[in-house]
Amino acid sequence: MQYIGLIGQSISASRSPSLHNMLGELKQLPVSYELQELDSSAVEAFTERLSLIREKGFIGTNVTFPFKQIAVDSADEVNDSVKKVGSTNTLLLKDGKVCAFNTDYTGFIRGYRTRLADQAAGKVLMIGAGGVGRAVAFGLFEVGATELFITDLNVAGAEALAQSLNDAGYKATVIAADEVADIAKGVDGLVNCTPVGHYKTPGNPLAASAFGGQKWAFDAVYTPLDTEFLKAANAAGLTIVSGFDLFFYQALDAFEIFTGVQVDDVTPVWNQFREKYDVVSDLI
């Protein structure tokens, strides 16, 4: 049996075990994906759990809130995606080493291109500059973003992300809350990387009147699948990239890293997972 983990907080409802275990069945690999839910957000809690699963022989682990940046310090080697983004969500445990990757970054790129092919992202407004926001922000410039406007209640976090992007040669600007409505009307894409829209924090981070005239929209939230943000974007005629797209493709990338087995037959896997686990949506 090959054991894979997910280290984080409030992860009991995660669909990751279902998807990874299904991939193992499809590829005839004995895979067991096991949640490693922690009560504490302390660095020590993370490092102790990582040490424990390494001792147990796990081949890898995903990492989620609030440990994505903390986890980088535990890595012996970091992939280029981690160097760009500054955080990791995928740790390969192999040959006595911890190797860090960021499949939020690669998964967003795959999800975007699946929905929009070669269409350039153009000018983009992004709400939220946290862990997943950093990965998505760098991913946006890989799919043709020309300029990124960032807003976040944590202004210091938004400014730090903008600085990192500008230092990498991209064009990013932090905007205030009272500028959002005007900026939204002049961009090609709208992105939500806040928790607003989740079952536990319902709502829409952007006024309904701000939707319209853009080309596409992405919401990192995928529980529920049809968020208020995506409903408003769909009603305004925008092409949708969903949080489920990100979840699905980051998981495929992570599975390939953990097992070394490529998942080429993506469409059947997508259809089978949605049918088996009743993933129903009007938008995706």
Keyword list:
globular, six-stranded mixed sheet, Rossmann fold, oxidoreductase, aromatic amino acid biosynthesis, shikimate 3-dehydrogenase (NADP+) activity, 284 residues, six-stranded parallel sheet, NADP binding, NADP
Molecular structure report:
- The protein has 284 residues and is an alpha/beta fold.
- The protein has 2 domains: 2-102 and 245-276, Leucine Dehydrogenase, chain A, domain 1 (Rossmann fold, 3-Layer(aba) Sandwich); 105-244, 3-Layer(aba) Sandwich (Rossmann fold), CATH 3.40.50.
- Helices cover 39% and strands 20% of the residues.
- It is built from 10 helices and 12 strands.
- The strands form 2 sheets. Strands 2-1-3-5-6-4 form a 6-stranded mixed β-sheet, sandwiched between helices.
- Helix 1 (16-26) packs across helix 9, helix 4 crosses helix 5 and helix 4 (103-116) crosses helix 9.
- The chain is globular and about 55 Å long.
CATH architecture of the largest domain: 3-Layer(aba) Sandwich
Structural class by secondary-structure content: alpha/beta
**Alpha-carbon distance between the termini?**
34 Å
Percent strand: 15-25%
Overall tally of structural domains:
2
The CATH class of the largest domain, by name, is Alpha Beta
Mean pLDDT across residues: 95
SSE string, helices as H and strands as E: EHEHEEHEEHEHEHEHEEHEHH
Low-confidence stretches: none
Quaternary structure classification: single chain
Helical residue percent? 25-40%
Write down how many β-strands occur, each being a DSSP E stretch of 2 or more residues: 12
CATH superfamily of the largest domain: NAD(P)-binding Rossmann-like Domain
What would you report as the Rg, rounded to the nearest angstrom? 18 Å
Our count of helices gives 10
Q: What composes the largest sheet? A: 6 strands, mixed
Shape: globular
* CATH domain fold name of the largest domain: Rossmann fold
Q: Give me the side-by-side strand order of the main sheet.
A: 2-1-3-5-6-4
GO molecular function, one term: shikimate 3-dehydrogenase (NADP+) activity
Pfam families: Shikimate_dh_N
Organism: Marinomonas communis
Pathway: Metabolic intermediate biosynthesis; chorismate biosynthesis; chorismate from D-erythrose 4-phosphate and phosphoenolpyruvate: step 4/7
